[in-house]
Specification:
Elements: E1 2-9, E2 14-19, E3 24-28, E4 45-51, E5 58-64
Antiparallel strand pairs: 1-2, 1-4, 2-3, 4-5
């Protein structure tokens, strides 16, 4: 699924993004693939797979979409 990064919390190693389904997902530093967590920024377009743990929607296998 495609998404836009909404917030980055670099000190915590987490971020949030809004999927094309309109839902907000959180992701962790170790979910980033084909790149580095520090390469991501607010407003960037990414692709991801959704995993649904107990209390929050979580994004896994997050990849930066490069122009």
């Amino acid at each position: 699924m495609n998404a836009t990064i909404q917030q980055m919390h670099r000190d915590r190693g987490t971020g949030s993004l809004i999927g094309e389904d309109g839902k907000t997902y959180t992701f962790r530093r170790n979910a980033v693939r084909d790149g580095w967590f520090h390469d991501l920024s607010e407003g960037a377009t990414v692709t991801f797979d959704a995993a649904e743990p107990h209390e929050k929607l979580e994004a896994v296998r997050v990849r930066l979409v490069r122009p």
